[in-house]
Amino acid sequence: MASIASFSGLGSGIDFSQLTEAILTERSRPLSQLQSRSSQFTKRNDAYKQLNTKLATLTEAANALTNKDLGTGRTTSSNAADKVTAVADASAATGAFNLSVTRLASNLTQATRAYASAETAVLAGGATTATFELRLGGASTGTEITIDSDNNTLAGLRDAINDADAGVTATIVATDVAGTQNKLVLTSDVTGTAGRVELVETTSTGTQADLTIASLNPPGATNDFSALDATFTLNGLGLTRSSNAVSDAISGVTFNLVNTGTATVTVSTSRNDFEARVRSFVNAYNDVQDFIAGQYAKGSNGRASGVLAGDSTLQSVQTQLRTALGLSSTDNGGTFDNLTQLGIGRSDDGKLTLDNTTLSSALSNSFSDARSLFSGLSETDTGLANKFYDAFTALSDGVTGLVKNAITGNESSIKNIEKTVGDQLARLSRLRQTLTRQFAAADAAINQLNGQGTALTNLFDAQNASKSK
After folding, report:
1. b vs e for 153-170, b when ≥16 Cβ sit within 10 Å of the residue's Cβ?
2. Whether pTM exceeds 0.85
3. Is residue 120 part of a domain?
4. Residue 86, helix vs strand vs coil
5. Which one of 185, 328, 362, 366 is most buried, counting C-beta atoms within 10 A?
6. Range of the domain at 251
7. Which residue, among 316, 325, 384, has the nearest Cα to 350 in the 3D structure?
């Protein structure tokens, strides 16, 4: 499309450009109003999305309290955590356990004799090949490795052991500064006699005897490796284990032996998770209320400053939240039927309050009833948290929720406005082109008329001058 020429009415002396802009400005007034409405819808949508995020958090907080297993877990404590710690699952019996650790489980460590370098041959008696097995826990067979002309060095033996991945790690340690005394050190990956891995030659080359493998831990051990095991007493009963993590002594409890010494480990019922979720629920509800209150906060003009102030969706959310919090539960299987029995009340501004003393007393004296109030005692019982979850989901659901419907409606309005704005801009563009052409023609016509008038004036002047002679 050819560009529209710009002109200023030079021929006519009329500023048609200014006239064009004045007409377009007047015609653009509805467009400005539409753009202002679109901006308002966008701000409202942003506010709706913030509200829905907070409602989703509240919904999840309510859902977390529907778990009937809350508070059935176990917590552990130790009066000497530098000696013994523990973890326990829900099956563990509660009580105190006295432990006295006399020896920790350790890894078998062995070393060969010293060799001049890592490249020194290890096969003895002129042998060209030898086979070995890496045997776990004193077994009669194990993982086989071979030393031959391709790897007949101390480094080759190290690499063959490590490549076998048989539960032992081989390293070469230089025991002198000059680096002429090199020993192959074998360290079992797992502690205890059951975890030890030994290198055993299955051929008769004399290579193993020449390696002169000796135990460093336990020092000097040859056949008896029991010193690798942990020894301790549990409530006076002597026990031995290959691992420092002892999970088979008390059902549901794993004791972690850290150091020698004595410790008392206590296993008790954990109510912390339940209390934490109650507090999370209160905080999530109050966060929604803070957002709502913020919409009605007065600005400098004395009017509500939030874009959702007076909004019907916001008012409906507020009403449904209050209705839900006023519900009671008489069929939860426990003796509690409302939130006030847990110390949860409501202040004048609509936010929840929490009396810590009342909550602590309820959890200490009637924990089952407190949990049942929210989740229901059995599968057929209905707690308040189930009712809260259903009510809040109706508000926050990302597909059918009340706020989502408002967002969808707003987005539809924004799209319609954007389409109207686009159409308006196209019409204004066409109007500009039309005005530019029309005014250009008018300017040319006026210029032509001016030219003809000048010519006639000159002609008359010439005739008058001729007569006067």
Report:
1. bbbbbbebbeebebbbbb
2. no
3. yes
4. strand
5. 362
6. 74-105+229-269
7. 325
CA distance 285 to 60: 11
The string of pLDDT tens digits covering residues 128-160 is 999 999 999 999 999 999 999 999 999 999 999
Residue 458 in domain: no
CA 189 to chain centre: 34
The region of weakest confidence among 41-50, 228-237, 243-252, 330-339 is 41-50
Q: Mark whether 78 and 198 lie in a shared domain.
A: no
Q: Are residues 142 and 241 part of one domain?
A: no
Could you give the number of structural domains in the chain?
3
What is the pLDDT at residue 427?
73
Measured distance CA(238)–CA(232) in Å, rounded: 6
The pair phi, psi for residue 199, each rounded to 5°, is: -95, 120
The H-or-E segment that residue 250 falls in is: strand 245-250
Quickly state the pLDDT bin for 466 (edges 50, 70, 90): low
Residues 321-332 have pLDDT tens digits of 999 998 888 889
Residues 359 and 329 both lie in one domain: yes
Number of other residues whose CB lies within 10 A of the CB of residue 378: 10
Determine the distance from the C-alpha atom of residue 464 to the mean position of all C-alpha atoms in its chain, rounded to a whole number. 100
Residue 144 lies in a domain: yes
Q: Which of 193, 263, 184, 179 is nearest to 224 (CA)?
A: 193
18 domain-assigned: no
